[in-house]
């Protein structure tokens, strides 16, 4: 499996076997050779050349790969400390909503980083890496709120994820989604000028104004939500200027933030 690194080492790859076990990292030239010649022992996924929201990969392999990155970026990891950034944008997403006495499911909760935001709520975190909690153990239509915070770029299937979320969300319950997205400048570079897009490590896709190689459109996401009785209520783009984040809800500007928040309601 080939996953694109961040820009400082753009083009390097990480190779996983079909079972999801990490094998080794390779240089850009080796990635090109593997893709050109093919491999019977490795599954290669290049987000830049895949516009589909569905990734054809075994669910157990996704679990192992997810576990690998979860350990790499665990709490207090020396690799990176993204918690302050994610807490700031998370607080903006939740601003204006009352979560007191609500039953909340954090879908893709990782290390339950956001549980501290809900001291007066009944919080439950679900993640593929939590072997002690099976998703089917949660009762259907039992949660007032479902959080899906920077998860959809990592999952193999957006369709399956929305189906699972809808099953657990009460009618009139709220779904909060946050996803990485292309800024207007990036949209021009990667869609209009057709330059290759670098996708962060461990991501299967990006999101943006329209679908193209490596990018899933907001419209596709909204239609997928609707198929599972979740109506989009609000979309907000997050713009960063002088080290501060600003929320923009005016169309079409809301579609071009570096991060995008979507609020949906189950009908």
Structural overview:
The protein is α/β, with parallel strands linked by helices. It contains 6 helices and 11 strands. The strands form 3 sheets. It has a 7-stranded mixed sheet. The protein starts with 12 loop residues before the first strand and ends with a strand.
Low-pLDDT regions: 1-10
The CATH topology of the largest domain is given as Rossmann fold
User: How many strands, which pairing sense, and closed or not: the largest β-sheet?
Assistant: 7 strands, mixed
How confident overall, as mean pLDDT? 81
**Oligomeric composition of the shown chains:** single chain
Any idea how many domains? 2
> Would you identify the CATH H-level superfamily of the largest domain?
Vaccinia Virus protein VP39
Supply Rg: 18 Å
Q: How would you write the strand order of the largest sheet?
A: 4-3-5-6-11-9-10
Estimated helix fraction: 10-25%
- Helical stretch tally: 6
Instruction: Note the gap between the termini.
Output: 38 Å
Class by helix and strand content? alpha/beta
Proper CATH architecture of the largest domain: 3-Layer(aba) Sandwich
Total beta-strand segments: 11
User: What is the H-and-E element order?
Assistant: EEHHHEEEHEHEEHEEE
Taken from the alpha-carbon principal axes, the silhouette is globular
